[in-house]
Amino acid sequence: MDLVQRGQVCAVLFVVLFFRGGSCSPGVLRVQHKFKGLGKNLTELKSHDARRHGRILSAIDVHLGGDGDPTNTGLYYAQIKIGNPAKDYYVQIDTGSDILWVNCIQCTRCPKKSGLGVHLTLYDPSGSSSGNPISCADPFCSIAYQGPIQDCTPDVACPYGVEYGDGSTTSGFYVQDYIQYERVSGNFQTTPANASVVFGCGAHQSGQLGKDDQALDGIFGFGQANSSVISQLASSGKVKKMFAHCLDGIHGGGIFSIGQVVQPSLKTTPLVPNQPHYNVNLKAIDVGGSVLDLPSNVFGSGDGQGTIIDSGTTLAYITEGAYKPVMSAIMSYGPKLKFSMLEGSYCFIYTGSVDDAFPSVTLYFEDSLSLRVYPRDYLFEASESYWCIGWQNSGMQSKESRQMTILGDLVLRNKLVVYDLENQVIGWTDYNSFSQIFGDSADFFMNSLKLLF
């Protein structure tokens, strides 16, 4: 398939510059943005983040199941094909959870339609010639449960289940079937590929999970557990245990890709070990070239502390002890403006170029990795000439998150972000692939996309 003809500009960038070919050629998933950039109002963005953080910070895993809400907490989603014959499914792409799961034909409270305008499909294992339930005696089940299941007999399916902080639940059983994806083959091309993986078949839902608003078929977790798709593909030799994303902050959407990045070279920072999410050690914050004088323990890594990289969060949340100094530095650096509060965010009226008038904010991480966030990224236009600051105070969300820093889409857009799970590091570089590679042609390519909104 020709990537240029499909208009998948970010995927072309991955093909041309980033990935090593051969037997471990990466697979690519084109993703769509639920809010298509920051076009929604602040209430919707913060409400989305509050729900999501309730999941990733407060969720209780029943057995191993994973973490994901197919109605409200995801931000990016993609179309994948499952089964034989293959059928289309729309799933959230989530770096904050592990397993792939989709709603199944047995489901009693699954959404029947979606406010996103996509067609929902219930997976039927018996309708796929390659689909089979996984027995509780299967080695995968022992991996998922970190040991054998008591009273297991070979005719009993391997169960999965998740209970969330708001009391919503999803449960079902594991099945094995083929997923189809596009594999990079070089020369601006991808070719169809498939792999047999184990994933969750959702049979029961309760609480908020049955709502139609923004519903999808399931969730595709990009977590580190052995039960994740990326771990399964890596253990079978299909790909390296790495993935990357390139998220477009202008048009919305982008590309997630599983595989090895070889160019450009990236600086990296270690992942904090034994954490359920992608935690890193944030060391300092610089505003406009001046490093802020912050308390030495403001970016701790103990219980209830730390910094999480989460593509499913819309804005960026700074620990309570650093938020006020950051806001003070931004507002004192820029032009003399009258600031007002809108739903807990500082907002102002301005008609000039925000990049010329406001400072960049640079975050410094362990091993000298830095992340620069430009004014055009952390400021967004709530209405014509009315701008709001996207940095948020973690302490205003919940007691559990007041000492957490959660870096979401606001700081990850227009960057190549690489998760090297083999070496337990994460790295990134500025890369507005759409404009840097194609210049004015980027709009032509992007206009050729048939977006899902």
Question: Summary?
Answer:
The chain has 453 residues and is an alpha+beta fold. It is built from eleven helices and 28 strands.
Description:
This protein is α+β, with helices and mostly antiparallel strands. The protein has eleven helices and 28 strands. The protein has helices spanning 3-6, 9-18, 42-58, 139-145, 229-235, 320-333, 354-357, 375-378, 409-412, 433-438, 441-447, and strands spanning 27-33, 60-62, 76-82, 87-94, 100-103, 132-133, 159-163, 169-186, 189-206, 218-221, 242-247, 254-258, 268-270, 279-280, 282-287, 290-291, 306-309, 316-318, 340-342, 345-349, 361-365, 369-373, 379-383, 386-389, 391-393, 404-407, 415-420, 425-430. The chain has a 15-stranded mixed β-sheet that branches. A five-stranded mixed β-sheet has the order 14-17-26-18-25. A four-stranded antiparallel β-sheet has the order 16-15-21-22. Strand 27 (415-420) and strand 28 (425-430) form a beta hairpin. The longest helix is centred in the N-terminal third of the chain and has 17 residues, at 42-58. Residues 1-26, 46-74 and 433-453 have low confidence and may be disordered.
